TrEMBL record:
<dbReference type="Pfam" id="PF13728">
    <property type="entry name" value="TraF"/>
</dbReference>
<dbReference type="InterPro" id="IPR036249">
    <property type="entry name" value="Thioredoxin-like_sf"/>
</dbReference>
<feature type="signal peptide">
    <location>
        <begin position="1"/>
        <end position="20"/>
    </location>
</feature>
<keyword id="KW-0732">Signal</keyword>
<dbReference type="InterPro" id="IPR039555">
    <property type="entry name" value="TraF/TrbB"/>
</dbReference>
<protein>
    <submittedName>
        <fullName>Conjugal transfer protein TrbB</fullName>
    </submittedName>
</protein>
Length: 200
C-alpha cells in the first residue's frame, strides 16, 4: 500500500478512534458515579465495639480508660473473698482497671498483692486513701468499692458489701452518667443497705 494512502487512512480513522476512547472514558466515569451513589445510599456500618467502650443507658458511649474502680478489702473478710472474684472478672471483661487496697495488710486470691494505704502525716488519724474515700461519712468496712474518674480523681461510692454483678453494672453506668453530668457525689442516692460487710 502506498505510504501516502496509509497516512491518509490513519488520519481519517483518528476521529473514530478518539471517539471510542472518549466513549470508554465517559462510560468509566458514569460507572464510578453509580458506584459512589450506591455507596452513599448504603447505611454506614456501626462502629465495631471495642473492649474499652461502654454504652450508657442514655445512649452515650464512654471510654473505660477514663474510669477505674478502687476497692477496699481485707484478707480475712469472708465478704471480700466472695465479692472480689466477681468484681475482678467483671472488670476484666470490660477493660476496667481495679486498684485494690487492703485494710489489714493482706490480700486474697483475687488480689494477692493489694496496695496498702499510707499515712503521710503521722498526726493524721487514718491513712490518706482511707480519708479520701471514707471521709464523707461512709462507714469503713469491706468490701467497699468506688468508681473513680481517673482524669479528675472524683470518686463515687459504688458498693459497700457484696453486690450482684447486674446491679453493680447498672450502678456503675449511672455513676458514670452522674460524673459526665457533673453531679456532686453528695447529691446521689445513698448506697443500698447491705449486711454482707465486715466493719473495720
Amino acid at each position: 500500500m502506498n505510504p501516502l494512502k496509509l497516512a491518509a487512512l490513519a488520519l481519517a480513522l483518528l476521529p473514530v478512534l478518539a471517539c471510542a476512547g472518549v466513549r470508554e472514558e465517559i462510560a468509566a466515569m458514569e460507572a464510578a458515579k453509580a458506584s459512589q451513589a450506591a455507596e452513599a445510599v448504603r447505611p454506614a456500618a456501626p462502629p465495631e465495639p471495642t473492649g474499652d467502650r461502654m454504652m450508657l443507658p442514655d445512649g452515650r458511649q464512654v471510654n473505660m480508660k477514663d474510669y477505674a474502680v478502687v476497692v477496699f478489702m481485707q484478707a480475712h473478710c469472708e465478704y471480700s473473698a466472695k465479692f472480689d472474684p466477681m468484681l475482678k472478672s467483671w472488670a476484666g471483661q470490660h477493660g476496667i482497671r481495679v486498684y485494690p487496697y487492703t485494710l489489714d495488710g493482706g490480700g486474697d486470691v483475687s488480689f494477692p498483692t493489694p496496695l496498702v494505704p499510707r499515712k503521710t502525716d503521722p498526726r493524721a488519724p487514718l491513712a490518706d486513701e482511707i480519708m479520701t474515700f471514707f471521709g464523707n461519712g461512709l462507714p469503713i468496712a469491706t468490701p467497699t468499692a468506688f468508681m473513680v474518674n481517673v482524669n479528675t480523681l472524683k470518686a463515687y461510692p459504688l458498693t459497700q458489701g457484696v453486690m450482684d454483678i447486674p446491679v453493680l453494672e447498672s450502678r456503675y453506668a449511672s455513676l458514670i452518667q452522674a460524673d459526665l453530668d457533673h453531679l456532686d457525689p453528695q447529691q446521689l442516692p445513698a448506697l443500698p443497705a447491705n449486711s454482707q460487710v465486715t466493719p473495720q
